[in-house]
Amino acid sequence: MIPLSILDLAPVTEGSDARQTFANTLSLARRAEALGYHRYWLAEHHNMPGIASAATAVLIGHVAGGTTRIRVGSGGIMLPNHAPLQVAEQFGTLGALYPGRIDLGLGRAPGTDQAATRALRRYYQGADEFPADVAELLRYFEPLPTDGRPLPTVRAVPGAGIEVEAWILGSSLFGAQLAAAMGLPYAFASHFAPDALEQALALYHREFRPSKRLARPHVMLAMNVVAADTDTEARRLFTTQQQAFVKLRRGTPGLVPPPLRSGDALREFASPDEIAGVDRALSVAVVGSPATVRAGIAAFLERHRPDELMLTANIFDHAARERSFELVMEALES
Questions:
Q1: Nearest to 7 by CA among 82, 60, 58
Q2: pLDDT at 127 over 70
Q3: pTM for this prediction
Q4: pLDDT higher than threshold 80 for residue 135
Q5: At what angle do helices 56-65 and 18-35 cross, to 10 degrees?
Q6: How confident is the model over 31-45, as a mean pLDDT?
Q7: Do the Cβ atoms of 7 and 222 come closer than 8 Å?
């Protein structure tokens, strides 16, 4: 079976707080490890009341320290917000603490609004610096010379010689082209920005150049998957994610809302244009019973043939969220 992984947006639900979110994150990661999921990623967002993964490296350490085998990483670190040296130091530390288990997914979007972007890094020149920053960051992980050559003037301590699996993230042709040129694995954000999916995959495979880190192309695609005992219940649970997207598009993000009384009730919450926009953004989604989920994932894999699949489910009730990931794994193993 294709490796399955989980993207956790660290949701802060209405009536809850960040402390409970972090407890839920660790609970889900431990359950994912027991079920056989391959990776557990957390994404950097800022100034978002409903997402508590702003200090992404800290939260990765929390999850890695509470698990034993599952790979843990970022999906991703938004490099425009950081100096490459600082990221190398953070992930070098994580790699030293949890050897062979740390992933570093890198994105060029800020993961926030313009005001927060300025507050995070006032003197950054722009996302056009991303390729050079990636190259600088990866150099910090290279082993130090032992043949008499001069040591680097600046080094990441810890960092040099530590194994951290680096990925390029993207939702456009830019990321695909960069990942191909640098010989890195590529993760496409099809769970919220699917429009360029087929073009990006074709470009990445066509232009890939082997590197010391990767001999052949390797792609992971992301998908929204909500599983429940029935199609009707799964569609109801999915209205949490749909509402959150509508609010984001309205410019009023908030805490993660409870589901509506039914999947059809979304028409009372959002306009037809809003629903059409959300349907397009979340079109890479499988929502339903185990049989529906199994068929939907199989069709997606047959069409796009990724090397790995990363699932995300922004479900309000934590028990229902854990159960959803259990049902997905059971469905695909049956």
A1: 60
A2: no
A3: 0.96
A4: yes
A5: 50
A6: 97
A7: yes
